């Protein structure tokens, strides 16, 4: 009986231990479950806060996108977005107005050839089919794959600029007429005097030939003055045609006959096809050659070479040179260092250069000769297509 009671007591103790362990585990589970519930509640709160923040961010982005869309639509300029292949992927209403449809999904090079014509006097501008002029700029977007092209209507600005130029031109014409009166009257009176002497009876043939040569010299002088006046008067309104650079340089070689010194003509860029007014360019270069000869130069070198984005034609001489303060005023109308000059020669050269979309500059120093450089930019039809990432092939002849 004692053994049975001991065994029952042990079982009772084991059951007691098991209940106690169960109670402890149950208490731990209850505590863990409460902790888990607290963590879930915290995570739910954090998730709700993150969701609210996300919703606020999305709302702000939608407002910003809507605002940007409104700004894009209201911009007084055409905006075109290109992908890495030069295809139009987005645009605003002004772009459709400027360039016409279809536009989305089209190659930019095809849009350019269809809707944009080059403006000779400004390589950064194009003319629309309705005659309006637009300025074109482009930039790469942040991903370096897409590009944005901006077309701004500059027709009104150009019209105002042309009006201002015309007003200045009329004012300059008044000054020019007053300045030319003496320059024309003196050689004209000289020519009349020599012509009257030719009518004398018994005049020797040699003397008659001298008088004839003097008359012809004065008439050529008058012709140059009139030509300078006409070219200056029609600044930027010259007929432009294609012609050969070699042909232009060969015309300059004809000036060797009238120059007692050494005149060297060099063309290092080959027979390029130029676009411009050949007579005006030839006259401008002859002006530079004549100026060098009249300044006392014994050697003049005319060189055509490749410049940055175009062709440089330089006229260098070994004459007495020009002071720095005079170089700054050389191309101003009616400024001259000659006692019998009109101050139109270099102003005409500057006018011709600007009419061709180029520039003229002078590099000189007293005693070191002078070098005038006429820079004519290249006008490449494919420039916009290339800058927009579209494949294009360079023409075998570049047009200037």
From TrEMBL:
Residues 179-380 form the Histidine kinase domain. The keyword Kinase applies. Residues 26-60 form a coiled coil. InterPro entries: BphY/WalK/GraS-like (IPR050351), HATPase_C_sf (IPR036890), HATPase_dom (IPR003594), His_kinase_dom (IPR005467), HisK_dim/P_dom (IPR003661), HisK_dim/P_sf (IPR036097), PAS (IPR000014), PAS-like_dom_sf (IPR035965). SUPFAM superfamilies: ATPase domain of HSP90 chaperone/DNA topoisomerase II/histidine kinase, Homodimeric domain of signal transducing histidine kinase, PYP-like sensor domain (PAS domain). GO terms for molecular function: ATP binding. Pfam families: HATPase_c, HisKA, PAS_8. PROSITE patterns: HIS_KIN. Keywords: ATP-binding, Coiled coil, Kinase, Membrane, Nucleotide-binding, Phosphoprotein, Transferase. The keyword DNA repair does not apply. It catalyses: ATP + protein L-histidine = ADP + protein N-phospho-L-histidine. Its EC number is 2.7.13.3. It comes from the Bacteria. CDD domains: HATPase, HisKA, PAS. PANTHER family: HISTIDINE KINASE, TWO-COMPONENT HISTIDINE KINASE. This is histidine kinase.
């Amino acid at each position: 009986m004692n053994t049975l009671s001991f065994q029952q007591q042990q079982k009772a103790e084991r059951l007691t231990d098991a209940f106690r362990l169960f109670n402890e585990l149950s208490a731990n589970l209850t505590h863990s479950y409460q902790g888990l519930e607290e963590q879930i509640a915290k995570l739910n709160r954090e998730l709700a806060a993150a969701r609210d923040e996300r919703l606020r961010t999305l709302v702000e982005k939608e407002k910003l996108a809507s605002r940007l869309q409104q700004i894009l639509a209201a911009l007084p300029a055409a905006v075109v977005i290109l992908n890495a292949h030069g295809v139009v992927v987005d645009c605003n209403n002004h772009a459709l107005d400027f360039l016409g449809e279809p536009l989305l999904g089209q190659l930019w090079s095809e849009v350019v050839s269809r809707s944009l014509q080059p403006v000779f006097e400004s390589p950064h501008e194009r003319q629309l089919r309705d005659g309006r002029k637009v300025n074109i700029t482009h930039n790469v977007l942040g991903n370096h794959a897409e590009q944005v092209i901006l077309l701004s209507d500059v027709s009104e600005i150009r019209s105002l600029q042309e009006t201002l130029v015309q007003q200045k031109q009329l004012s300059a014409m008044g000054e020019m007429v007053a300045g030319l009166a003496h320059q024309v009257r003196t050689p004209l009176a000289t020519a009349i005097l020599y012509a009257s002497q030719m009518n004398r009876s018994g005049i020797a043939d040699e003397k008659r030939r001298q008088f004839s040569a003097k008359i012809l010299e004065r008439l050529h002088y008058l012709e140059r003055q009139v030509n300078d006046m006409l070219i200056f008067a029609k600044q930027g309104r010259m007929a432009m045609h294609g012609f050969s650079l070699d042909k232009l340089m060969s015309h300059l070689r004809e000036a060797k006959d009238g120059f007692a010194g050494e005149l060297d003509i060099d063309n290092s860029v080959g027979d390029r096809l130029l676009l411009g007014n050949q007579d005006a360019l030839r006259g401008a270069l002859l002006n530079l050659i004549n100026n060098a000869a009249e300044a006392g130069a014994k050697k003049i070198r005319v060189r055509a070479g490749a410049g940055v984005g175009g062709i440089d034609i330089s006229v260098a001489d070994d004459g007495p040179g020009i002071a720095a303060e005079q170089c700054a005023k050389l191309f101003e109308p009616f400024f001259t260092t000659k006692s019998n000059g009109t101050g139109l020669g270099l102003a005409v050269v500057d006018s011709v250069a600007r009419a061709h979309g180029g520039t003229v500059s002078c590099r000189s120093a007293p005693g070191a000769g002078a070098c005038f450089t006429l820079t004519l930019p290249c006008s490449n039809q494919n420039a916009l297509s290339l800058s927009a990432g579209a494949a294009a092939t360079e023409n075998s002849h570049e047009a200037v």
